[in-house]
Amino acid sequence: MPKHKNWFWLAAFAAACFFDFLFWKKDLGISFLIWIAALIIIGYLLAWREGKKPSAASIIITLLTLGFAFIPVWRSEPFTRFFSAMLTMGGLLLLSATFLTGNWPFYKMVDYFKALFTAIGGALSRAILLSSKSPTPPPLEESQKTRGGKKFWAIVRGLLIALPIVAILALLLTAADPVFGDWLKKILDLEKLPEYLFRAFYIVAIGGLLVGIYLHAIHPNKMEERPDPNKAWMKPFLGWTESAVILAAVDLLFLSFVFIQMRYLFGGTANITETGFTYADYARRGFGELVAVAVLSLGLYLVLHTVSKRESRGSQIAFSALTILLMTNVLIILASSMSRLLLYEEAYGFSQLRTYTHVFIYWLAALIVVTVFLELFRRRGSFALALLVMTLGFGATLAVMNVNGFIANKNIARAVAGEDLDVPYLVSLSSDAVPTLFEKFTDTATPKAIKEDLGYALACRSVLMDDPSTQPWQEFNISTVQAWNLLQTNKSVLLKYKIVDSNDRGWYYLKNGEKISCFDYGFMD
């Protein structure tokens, strides 16, 4: 039991009400960073109030969580924001699970799942258990002030529970009796009553979850001992012979694939075209599947490492040899996937999905290289930490590189080299791309025809973009404001690029007598 349990209730429900204030009918913006920071500050204050000290490793998780919480304020590209938000929420759960112990650097994969699910379970159950525990009778010498304070908090908790119940019953009574409904309507705005009910419901739900999370972090049911990452978490049951056969079969399959790749994909255009494929068609096929093969191969390695028996030194050496051969083949397969992707981008240009895959391949290759070293030095249990680091690296790379700015820069470079420039696709990119578009638009080295296309793209952005100052402050986004300021500063320059509004096709512009829509493109893989 916490020493000051009422503070847990008060802090959690204050944070839940703050959530409603920041996010109700508002898009994600600076509100996300503010709320995450508020949750963390409240947690640290509660820990200080309870006399609990966070571990040094928890400070690291805190800083990383706040860093990724900043990305949705910094960037406007949807996937980068979504992935960063997911990493932020995962960071909060991991912080809750290891706040006092800081054991997360020593976790195996199973330990991470166990810790996260335990934190979720604590969020769902600890508040109920805390409220259901009967208070101990106050001592006879307890002051009247102390008893009065406990009674006050009991009243507050009762009101919080009673509000949604009374609201639901009041809604039913107004439907049953119009006189009562008219009377209540004079006091309350009944049209918004369902909205108020829904908001009250999720405020109570979020508050209860936060109470559980804070309790799990500061007063865990059981203090966890530091795990040994190299200690098996289950008894191996698969014979070494069976494991060797599986690894050898997969290695043979991969070696045959690598041989074909050396002959065709890495051998040049002529070797591909002689098989009946065009260079672009061959590049178009398979890079996603090859990435999936690499991911599945890592999964196979983890499973066999866990379940296979390796009792003799010879079996251990053979397992390492076969798995290192497997990882080497996977690296070559990833190189094949990257080659196909580069060819595809060269033929058709850059898109968001291709760029995500591009970045992901590099981090996946880094993980495979680290896995080989862990296998060589018998530190396989640190794979989970390596995976965590690579995942954080992937998310940070997307934010730092500016995905949409990167795409705009690469596609404009292709256009300068003589390829077509897809203006509607440039317009469809987020505000992150606007500074790059302006940079190339004002660059004297940009050819006149491409500069004209960029002028129309920026003019389209100008008419399609809403003034961010008219939006709630909670939606503030650095990229959006920067893009708007650039468009407004250069408004006079963009006036020469006439954009027309059509009821049936939306905004478009005329180029060589042809109507070109500002925002008309299909899905680009």
For the biggest β-sheet, the strand order reads 1-2-3
Largest sheet: 3 strands, antiparallel
Task: Give the overall pLDDT as a whole number.
Answer: 84
Structural class: mainly alpha
Layout of SSEs?
Elements: H1 5-23, H2 30-49, H3 56-74, H4 78-97, H5 109-132, H6 144-176, H7 178-187, H8 193-218, H9 240-263, H10 269-273, H11 279-284, H12 287-307, H13 313-348, H14 352-376, H15 383-401, H16 403-416, H17 423-428, H18 434-442, H19 448-464, H20 478-489, H21 491-494, E1 500-502, E2 506-511, E3 514-517
Antiparallel strand pairs: 1-2, 2-3
Helix pairs in contact: 1-2, 1-8, 2-3, 3-4, 4-5, 4-8, 4-15, 5-8, 6-7, 6-8, 9-13, 12-13, 12-14, 13-14, 14-15, 16-18, 18-19
List keywords for this structure.
3 domains, 525 residues, single chain, mainly alpha, 21 helices, 3-stranded antiparallel β-sheet
Q: What features would you describe in this structure?
A:
The protein is mainly alpha-helical. The chain folds into 3 domains: 5-133 and 148-218, no CATH class; 240-378; 404-517, no CATH class. Helix content is 70%, strand content 2%. The chain contains 21 helices and 3 strands. The protein has a 3-stranded antiparallel sheet, covered by helices on one side. It is flat. The protein starts with a helix and ends in an 8-residue tail after the last strand. The model has no long low-confidence stretch (mean pLDDT 84).
